[in-house]
Amino acid sequence: MHKIDRSSKLVATWLLIGVGMTVIQIALGGITRLTGSGLSITQWDVVTGALPPLNEQQWVLEFNKYRQTPQFQYLNFEFTVSDFKFIFFWEWFHRLWARTIGLVFAAGFIYFLIKRHFKKEMVQPLLFLFALGALQGVIGWVMVASGLTGDAVYVKPTRLALHFIFALGLLSYTYWFALSLLVKPQQMIINSSIRKWNLVLIALLILQLLYGALMAGHKAANIAATWPTINGAWIPEHLFNYNSFLINAIDNKIWVHFVHRGLAYLLLVMISLWSLKLYKTKGGVLFNYLRTMPIAIILIQVLLGILTVLSSAHIIAGTWGMFEWMAELHQLVGMLLLLVLVTMLFVIRPQHR
Description:
Blueprint: H1 6-34, H2 56-66, H3 70-74, H4 81-114, H5 120-145, H6 157-182, E1 189-190, H7 192-218, H8 245-251, H9 253-279, H10 285-290, H11 293-311, H12 322-347, E2 348-349
Parallel strand pairs: 1-2
Helix pairs in contact: 1-4, 1-6, 1-12, 5-6, 6-7, 6-12, 7-9, 7-12, 9-11, 11-12
Protein backbone atom coordinates (compact mmCIF):
# COMPACT_ATOMS: atom_id res chain seq x y z
CA MET A 1 0.00 0.00 0.00
CA HIS A 2 1.43 3.36 -1.08
CA LYS A 3 1.79 5.83 1.78
CA ILE A 4 2.25 9.58 1.61
CA ASP A 5 5.26 10.72 3.62
CA ARG A 6 5.19 13.63 6.04
CA SER A 7 7.19 15.99 3.79
CA SER A 8 4.77 15.53 0.89
CA LYS A 9 1.79 16.18 3.18
CA LEU A 10 3.36 19.36 4.56
CA VAL A 11 4.26 20.74 1.14
CA ALA A 12 0.82 19.81 -0.23
CA THR A 13 -0.89 21.59 2.69
CA TRP A 14 1.20 24.69 1.98
CA LEU A 15 0.19 24.54 -1.70
CA LEU A 16 -3.49 24.10 -0.83
CA ILE A 17 -3.33 27.14 1.44
CA GLY A 18 -2.02 28.96 -1.63
CA VAL A 19 -4.91 27.58 -3.69
CA GLY A 20 -7.42 28.88 -1.13
CA MET A 21 -5.74 32.28 -1.02
CA THR A 22 -5.71 32.46 -4.82
CA VAL A 23 -9.45 31.71 -4.95
CA ILE A 24 -9.99 34.60 -2.52
CA GLN A 25 -7.71 36.80 -4.64
CA ILE A 26 -9.72 36.08 -7.80
CA ALA A 27 -12.93 36.80 -5.86
CA LEU A 28 -11.42 40.11 -4.69
CA GLY A 29 -10.59 40.84 -8.32
CA GLY A 30 -14.27 40.33 -9.12
CA ILE A 31 -15.34 42.72 -6.35
CA THR A 32 -12.75 45.26 -7.54
CA ARG A 33 -14.18 45.07 -11.04
CA LEU A 34 -17.84 45.20 -9.96
CA THR A 35 -17.24 48.24 -7.75
CA GLY A 36 -15.25 50.02 -10.47
CA SER A 37 -12.22 50.24 -8.18
CA GLY A 38 -9.47 48.87 -10.39
CA LEU A 39 -8.09 52.21 -11.59
CA SER A 40 -8.09 54.01 -8.23
CA ILE A 41 -4.36 53.40 -7.61
CA THR A 42 -2.35 54.88 -10.45
CA GLN A 43 1.09 53.56 -9.53
CA TRP A 44 2.64 50.15 -8.96
CA ASP A 45 4.81 50.44 -5.85
CA VAL A 46 5.59 46.88 -4.78
CA VAL A 47 6.97 47.82 -1.35
CA THR A 48 5.73 51.30 -0.41
CA GLY A 49 2.33 50.65 -1.96
CA ALA A 50 1.57 48.10 0.76
CA LEU A 51 0.53 50.94 3.08
CA PRO A 52 -2.63 52.95 2.40
CA PRO A 53 -2.68 56.75 2.95
CA LEU A 54 -2.34 57.34 6.71
CA ASN A 55 -3.56 60.92 7.01
CA GLU A 56 -5.80 63.38 5.20
CA GLN A 57 -2.89 65.01 3.39
CA GLN A 58 -1.86 61.67 1.90
CA TRP A 59 -5.45 60.94 0.90
CA VAL A 60 -5.69 64.25 -0.95
CA LEU A 61 -2.39 63.49 -2.70
CA GLU A 62 -3.65 60.08 -3.90
CA PHE A 63 -7.00 61.58 -4.89
CA ASN A 64 -5.26 64.24 -6.98
CA LYS A 65 -3.39 61.48 -8.83
CA TYR A 66 -6.69 59.74 -9.54
CA ARG A 67 -8.19 63.02 -10.77
CA GLN A 68 -5.68 62.96 -13.64
CA THR A 69 -7.08 59.67 -14.96
CA PRO A 70 -9.60 59.43 -17.80
CA GLN A 71 -11.96 57.49 -15.49
CA PHE A 72 -12.29 60.45 -13.15
CA GLN A 73 -12.47 63.05 -15.90
CA TYR A 74 -15.10 61.25 -18.02
CA LEU A 75 -16.99 59.09 -15.51
CA ASN A 76 -16.40 59.87 -11.84
CA PHE A 77 -15.91 63.64 -12.06
CA GLU A 78 -18.38 64.17 -9.18
CA PHE A 79 -16.34 62.00 -6.80
CA THR A 80 -15.27 63.41 -3.44
CA VAL A 81 -12.36 62.16 -1.33
CA SER A 82 -14.89 60.04 0.59
CA ASP A 83 -16.07 58.34 -2.62
CA PHE A 84 -12.45 57.82 -3.62
CA LYS A 85 -11.62 56.13 -0.31
CA PHE A 86 -14.19 53.42 -1.03
CA ILE A 87 -12.83 52.43 -4.45
CA PHE A 88 -9.24 52.84 -3.24
CA PHE A 89 -9.85 50.30 -0.47
CA TRP A 90 -10.85 47.46 -2.79
CA GLU A 91 -7.95 47.94 -5.20
CA TRP A 92 -5.51 48.35 -2.30
CA PHE A 93 -6.85 45.24 -0.56
CA HIS A 94 -6.68 43.26 -3.82
CA ARG A 95 -3.01 44.21 -4.18
CA LEU A 96 -2.31 43.64 -0.47
CA TRP A 97 -3.74 40.11 -0.69
CA ALA A 98 -1.51 39.43 -3.72
CA ARG A 99 1.50 40.56 -1.66
CA THR A 100 0.35 38.31 1.21
CA ILE A 101 0.16 35.32 -1.13
CA GLY A 102 3.71 36.08 -2.23
CA LEU A 103 4.89 36.24 1.38
CA VAL A 104 3.14 32.97 2.28
CA PHE A 105 4.83 31.19 -0.62
CA ALA A 106 8.22 32.79 0.07
CA ALA A 107 8.11 32.01 3.81
CA GLY A 108 6.96 28.43 3.16
CA PHE A 109 9.66 27.95 0.54
CA ILE A 110 12.42 29.13 2.91
CA TYR A 111 11.06 27.01 5.80
CA PHE A 112 10.77 23.81 3.76
CA LEU A 113 14.17 24.43 2.20
CA ILE A 114 15.82 24.76 5.62
CA LYS A 115 13.97 21.72 6.97
CA ARG A 116 14.83 19.77 3.80
CA HIS A 117 11.24 18.81 3.03
CA PHE A 118 11.68 19.44 -0.70
CA LYS A 119 12.44 16.43 -2.83
CA LYS A 120 14.39 16.64 -6.06
CA GLU A 121 11.26 16.21 -8.22
CA MET A 122 9.58 19.17 -6.49
CA VAL A 123 12.21 21.77 -7.47
CA GLN A 124 11.28 22.33 -11.13
CA PRO A 125 7.50 22.65 -10.50
CA LEU A 126 8.22 25.10 -7.67
CA LEU A 127 10.39 27.31 -9.88
CA PHE A 128 7.71 27.29 -12.55
CA LEU A 129 5.10 28.17 -9.92
CA PHE A 130 7.05 31.22 -8.75
CA ALA A 131 7.59 32.32 -12.36
CA LEU A 132 3.84 32.09 -13.01
CA GLY A 133 3.12 34.14 -9.88
CA ALA A 134 5.56 36.89 -10.94
CA LEU A 135 4.15 36.91 -14.48
CA GLN A 136 0.62 37.30 -13.12
CA GLY A 137 1.69 40.38 -11.16
CA VAL A 138 3.16 41.95 -14.30
CA ILE A 139 0.01 41.15 -16.33
CA GLY A 140 -2.08 42.72 -13.57
CA TRP A 141 -0.21 45.99 -13.86
CA VAL A 142 -0.29 45.93 -17.69
CA MET A 143 -4.07 45.53 -17.38
CA VAL A 144 -4.41 48.49 -14.99
CA ALA A 145 -2.12 50.66 -17.15
CA SER A 146 -4.45 50.09 -20.12
CA GLY A 147 -7.14 52.13 -18.35
CA LEU A 148 -4.96 55.09 -17.34
CA THR A 149 -4.37 56.70 -20.73
CA GLY A 150 -6.35 58.20 -23.59
CA ASP A 151 -10.11 58.21 -23.12
CA ALA A 152 -10.37 54.81 -21.36
CA VAL A 153 -12.64 54.77 -18.33
CA TYR A 154 -12.09 51.04 -17.70
CA VAL A 155 -9.29 48.57 -18.36
CA LYS A 156 -9.21 46.92 -21.78
CA PRO A 157 -11.51 43.83 -21.77
CA THR A 158 -8.90 41.70 -23.54
CA ARG A 159 -6.31 42.48 -20.85
CA LEU A 160 -8.84 41.80 -18.11
CA ALA A 161 -9.53 38.43 -19.76
CA LEU A 162 -5.80 37.71 -20.00
CA HIS A 163 -5.32 38.57 -16.30
CA PHE A 164 -8.23 36.32 -15.32
CA ILE A 165 -7.15 33.35 -17.45
CA PHE A 166 -3.57 33.51 -16.18
CA ALA A 167 -4.92 33.61 -12.62
CA LEU A 168 -6.90 30.44 -13.34
CA GLY A 169 -3.80 28.87 -14.87
CA LEU A 170 -1.80 29.66 -11.73
CA LEU A 171 -4.63 28.31 -9.57
CA SER A 172 -4.93 25.07 -11.57
CA TYR A 173 -1.18 24.48 -11.69
CA THR A 174 -0.79 24.95 -7.92
CA TYR A 175 -3.74 22.64 -7.30
CA TRP A 176 -2.38 19.98 -9.70
CA PHE A 177 0.97 20.13 -7.91
CA ALA A 178 -0.77 19.56 -4.57
CA LEU A 179 -2.76 16.64 -5.99
CA SER A 180 0.45 15.03 -7.22
CA LEU A 181 1.63 14.93 -3.60
CA LEU A 182 -1.63 13.74 -2.04
CA VAL A 183 -3.46 11.36 -4.36
CA LYS A 184 -2.32 7.75 -4.08
CA PRO A 185 -1.89 5.60 -7.23
CA GLN A 186 -4.59 3.18 -6.04
CA GLN A 187 -7.09 6.08 -5.96
CA MET A 188 -6.73 6.61 -9.71
CA ILE A 189 -8.54 4.80 -12.50
CA ILE A 190 -7.49 4.08 -16.10
CA ASN A 191 -9.97 5.06 -18.79
CA SER A 192 -8.78 6.83 -21.93
CA SER A 193 -12.28 7.42 -23.30
CA ILE A 194 -13.71 9.44 -20.41
CA ARG A 195 -10.36 11.21 -20.01
CA LYS A 196 -10.61 12.52 -23.58
CA TRP A 197 -14.06 13.88 -22.72
CA ASN A 198 -12.49 15.46 -19.65
CA LEU A 199 -9.85 17.25 -21.73
CA VAL A 200 -12.44 18.56 -24.20
CA LEU A 201 -14.62 19.82 -21.33
CA ILE A 202 -11.70 21.66 -19.72
CA ALA A 203 -10.83 23.29 -23.07
CA LEU A 204 -14.46 24.39 -23.54
CA LEU A 205 -14.66 25.65 -19.97
CA ILE A 206 -11.48 27.72 -20.39
CA LEU A 207 -12.99 29.29 -23.52
CA GLN A 208 -16.21 29.91 -21.60
CA LEU A 209 -14.36 31.52 -18.69
CA LEU A 210 -12.45 33.67 -21.18
CA TYR A 211 -15.74 34.86 -22.62
CA GLY A 212 -17.05 35.41 -19.10
CA ALA A 213 -14.14 37.80 -18.54
CA LEU A 214 -14.90 39.55 -21.85
CA MET A 215 -18.53 39.82 -20.72
CA ALA A 216 -17.33 41.50 -17.54
CA GLY A 217 -14.84 43.75 -19.33
CA HIS A 218 -17.43 44.93 -21.86
CA LYS A 219 -20.18 45.07 -19.22
CA ALA A 220 -22.19 43.05 -21.71
CA ALA A 221 -24.66 41.34 -19.35
CA ASN A 222 -27.32 44.04 -19.58
CA ILE A 223 -27.04 44.39 -23.35
CA ALA A 224 -29.58 41.52 -23.34
CA ALA A 225 -31.15 41.27 -19.88
CA THR A 226 -33.66 38.68 -21.09
CA TRP A 227 -33.94 34.90 -20.97
CA PRO A 228 -34.31 32.42 -22.66
CA THR A 229 -34.11 34.60 -25.77
CA ILE A 230 -31.63 37.40 -26.39
CA ASN A 231 -33.79 40.51 -26.64
CA GLY A 232 -36.61 38.42 -28.10
CA ALA A 233 -34.50 36.50 -30.61
CA TRP A 234 -32.68 33.18 -30.44
CA ILE A 235 -30.03 34.50 -32.83
CA PRO A 236 -29.73 38.23 -32.20
CA GLU A 237 -29.04 40.95 -34.75
CA HIS A 238 -25.72 42.76 -35.10
CA LEU A 239 -23.60 39.65 -34.53
CA PHE A 240 -21.29 40.79 -37.32
CA ASN A 241 -20.98 44.51 -36.72
CA TYR A 242 -17.30 44.39 -37.67
CA ASN A 243 -15.73 43.08 -40.86
CA SER A 244 -13.03 41.21 -38.96
CA PHE A 245 -14.01 37.93 -37.30
CA LEU A 246 -11.39 38.48 -34.58
CA ILE A 247 -12.68 41.97 -33.74
CA ASN A 248 -16.24 40.58 -33.57
CA ALA A 249 -15.05 37.75 -31.33
CA ILE A 250 -13.45 40.03 -28.74
CA ASP A 251 -15.06 43.49 -29.11
CA ASN A 252 -18.63 43.00 -30.34
CA LYS A 253 -20.72 42.99 -27.15
CA ILE A 254 -23.69 41.12 -28.59
CA TRP A 255 -21.36 38.48 -30.10
CA VAL A 256 -19.60 38.05 -26.75
CA HIS A 257 -22.95 37.72 -24.98
CA PHE A 258 -24.31 35.25 -27.57
CA VAL A 259 -21.20 33.03 -27.49
CA HIS A 260 -21.06 33.06 -23.69
CA ARG A 261 -24.65 31.80 -23.49
CA GLY A 262 -24.11 29.25 -26.25
CA LEU A 263 -21.03 27.78 -24.60
CA ALA A 264 -22.97 27.46 -21.35
CA TYR A 265 -25.65 25.33 -23.03
CA LEU A 266 -23.00 23.27 -24.84
CA LEU A 267 -21.16 22.59 -21.58
CA LEU A 268 -24.43 21.63 -19.87
CA VAL A 269 -25.25 19.07 -22.58
CA MET A 270 -21.73 17.64 -22.76
CA ILE A 271 -21.27 17.37 -19.00
CA SER A 272 -24.68 15.65 -18.76
CA LEU A 273 -23.62 13.06 -21.36
CA TRP A 274 -20.21 12.68 -19.73
CA SER A 275 -21.84 12.13 -16.34
CA LEU A 276 -23.80 9.21 -17.77
CA LYS A 277 -20.50 7.68 -18.82
CA LEU A 278 -19.00 8.38 -15.40
CA TYR A 279 -21.86 6.60 -13.62
CA LYS A 280 -21.31 3.54 -15.83
CA THR A 281 -17.61 3.46 -14.98
CA LYS A 282 -16.26 1.46 -12.06
CA GLY A 283 -13.90 3.24 -9.72
CA GLY A 284 -12.77 3.67 -6.15
CA VAL A 285 -14.16 5.82 -3.36
CA LEU A 286 -12.54 9.05 -4.60
CA PHE A 287 -13.74 8.59 -8.19
CA ASN A 288 -17.27 7.67 -7.06
CA TYR A 289 -17.38 10.84 -4.95
CA LEU A 290 -16.03 13.10 -7.68
CA ARG A 291 -18.31 11.87 -10.48
CA THR A 292 -21.39 13.34 -8.78
CA MET A 293 -19.96 16.86 -8.77
CA PRO A 294 -19.64 18.12 -12.41
CA ILE A 295 -23.35 17.81 -13.24
CA ALA A 296 -24.41 19.35 -9.91
CA ILE A 297 -22.05 22.30 -10.29
CA ILE A 298 -22.89 23.01 -13.95
CA LEU A 299 -26.61 23.12 -13.09
CA ILE A 300 -25.93 25.66 -10.33
CA GLN A 301 -23.65 27.61 -12.67
CA VAL A 302 -26.26 27.83 -15.43
CA LEU A 303 -28.88 29.00 -12.93
CA LEU A 304 -26.51 31.67 -11.59
CA GLY A 305 -25.77 32.77 -15.15
CA ILE A 306 -29.49 33.21 -15.87
CA LEU A 307 -30.02 35.16 -12.64
CA THR A 308 -26.99 37.34 -13.41
CA VAL A 309 -28.35 38.25 -16.84
CA LEU A 310 -31.88 38.93 -15.57
CA SER A 311 -30.71 41.01 -12.60
CA SER A 312 -28.45 43.10 -14.85
CA ALA A 313 -31.57 45.04 -15.86
CA HIS A 314 -31.62 46.56 -12.38
CA ILE A 315 -28.01 47.68 -11.94
CA ILE A 316 -27.68 50.86 -9.88
CA ALA A 317 -24.36 52.63 -10.28
CA GLY A 318 -22.33 52.74 -7.07
CA THR A 319 -24.63 50.24 -5.32
CA TRP A 320 -23.90 46.59 -4.51
CA GLY A 321 -27.11 44.77 -5.35
CA MET A 322 -28.57 41.55 -6.69
CA PHE A 323 -26.61 41.69 -9.95
CA GLU A 324 -23.28 42.09 -8.17
CA TRP A 325 -24.01 39.16 -5.83
CA MET A 326 -25.04 36.92 -8.73
CA ALA A 327 -22.04 37.91 -10.86
CA GLU A 328 -19.60 37.25 -8.01
CA LEU A 329 -21.15 33.86 -7.19
CA HIS A 330 -21.20 33.01 -10.91
CA GLN A 331 -17.46 33.61 -11.09
CA LEU A 332 -16.73 31.57 -7.94
CA VAL A 333 -18.79 28.57 -9.07
CA GLY A 334 -17.05 28.73 -12.47
CA MET A 335 -13.71 28.40 -10.66
CA LEU A 336 -15.07 25.51 -8.60
CA LEU A 337 -16.16 23.70 -11.77
CA LEU A 338 -12.68 24.14 -13.22
CA LEU A 339 -11.02 22.70 -10.10
CA VAL A 340 -13.39 19.72 -10.11
CA LEU A 341 -12.61 18.97 -13.76
CA VAL A 342 -8.88 19.31 -13.02
CA THR A 343 -9.27 16.84 -10.14
CA MET A 344 -11.10 14.40 -12.42
CA LEU A 345 -8.34 14.73 -15.01
CA PHE A 346 -5.74 13.90 -12.38
CA VAL A 347 -7.64 10.86 -11.10
CA ILE A 348 -8.59 9.49 -14.55
CA ARG A 349 -5.47 8.26 -16.30
CA PRO A 350 -5.00 7.18 -19.95
CA GLN A 351 -4.38 3.60 -20.95
CA HIS A 352 -0.72 2.70 -20.74
CA ARG A 353 0.80 1.60 -24.05
